[in-house]
């Protein structure tokens, strides 16, 4: 395949890129970090969280949904945009129940790490603490539903190895939405597949049963390096 080389500008910096590449990746490869939660590099974009809000030309757009095109002018680091991203993160904290100090995912949770990244101290929105029943039904996985941010990573990227069927789904609408698990398929997941699903979840909703604090707090990935540093270094998510 022939790739067309183009030029774009991000925060005043002239950048050479391949036409159609993802804006988040292009920015990162040129030392510019855009916060993300639902986007997984190398996977189709989901566009569910909008935390990657940037300005493209005169419009605000979710960067992970933007394929770069010649002449594009992008703004990332500007106070109003930064506040929009912060507000989106705050709304996610306000919608669910996020008790970071007691959560098994603390220190390796993308939402917590992005919260630090955007400088969030407290949510400007009223905390709802939406109650959602836990699901203990599967052999290896516990679902802490009230932490789910509905990013759909698990829905789209976790499949049964044999049939390709989805293992996770979202039921309900609005405040009654909740994440569901197909117990029969989940019980067939290998240990490595369970670990991948746990790692893929950007919060502490998908938790492996019988594993608690196997990695001490203080030594976890975001305790050692911030999500920005990890992303810029190309570390795995
Ligand atoms: S369980 Fe985790 S990965 Fe799945 S939709 Fe909720 S937050 Fe996203
Ligand atoms: S990271 Fe872009 S919409 Fe979620």
Overview in brief:
By secondary structure, the protein is α+β, with helices and mostly antiparallel strands. The protein has helices spanning 23-29, 79-95, 110-117, 153-157, 183-186, 191-200, 221-224, 227-233, and strands spanning 5-10, 13-18, 53-56, 59-62, 73-75, 141-143, 168-171, 178-181, 206-208.
**C-alpha termini separation:** 28 Å
Order of helices and strands: EEHEEEHHEHEEHHEHH
Radius of gyration: 18 Å
Decide which structural class fits the backbone. alpha+beta
Q: Roughly what fraction of the amino acids lie in strands? A: 15-25%
What is the 3D shape? Answer: globular
Number of strands: 9
CATH topology of the largest domain: Alpha-Beta Plaits
Overall average residue pLDDT: 96
- Could you say what the CATH architecture of the largest domain is? 2-Layer Sandwich
Indicate the CATH class of the largest domain. Answer: Alpha Beta
Low-pLDDT regions: none
Instruction: Please estimate the helix content.
Output: 25-40%
Descriptive terms for the model:
Alpha-Beta Plaits; globular; two-stranded antiparallel ribbon; 2 domains; binds FE2/S2 (inorganic) cluster; 5-stranded mixed sheet; binds iron/sulfur cluster
């Amino acid at each position: 395949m022939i790739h067309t080389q183009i030029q774009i500008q991000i925060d005043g910096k002239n950048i050479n890129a391949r036409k159609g590449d993802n804006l988040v990746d292009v920015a990162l490869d040129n030392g510019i970090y855009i916060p993300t939660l639902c986007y997984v590099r190398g996977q189709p974009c989901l566009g569910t969280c909008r935390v990657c809000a940037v300005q493209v030309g005169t419009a605000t757009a979710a960067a992970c949904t933007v394929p770069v095109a010649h002449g594009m002018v992008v703004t990332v680091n500007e106070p109003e945009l930064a506040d929009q991203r912060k507000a989106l993160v705050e709304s996610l904290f306000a919608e669910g129940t996020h008790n970071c100090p007691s959560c098994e995912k603390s220190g390796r949770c993308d939402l917590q790490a992005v919260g630090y990244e955007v400088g969030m101290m407290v949510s400007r929105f009223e905390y709802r603490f939406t109650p959602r029943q836990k699901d203990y039904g599967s052999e290896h996985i516990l679902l802490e539903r009230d932490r789910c941010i509905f990013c759909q990573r698990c829905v789209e990227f976790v499949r049964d190895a044999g049939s390709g069927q989805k293992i996770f789904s979202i039921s309900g609408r609005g405040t009654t939405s909740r994440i569901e698990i197909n117990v029969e398929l989940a019980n067939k997941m290998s240990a490595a597949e369970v670990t991948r699903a746990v790692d893929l979840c950007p919060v502490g909703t998908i938790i492996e049963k019988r594993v608690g604090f196997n990695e001490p707090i203080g030594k976890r990935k975001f305790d050692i390096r911030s999500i920005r540093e990890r992303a810029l270094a190309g570390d795995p998510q």
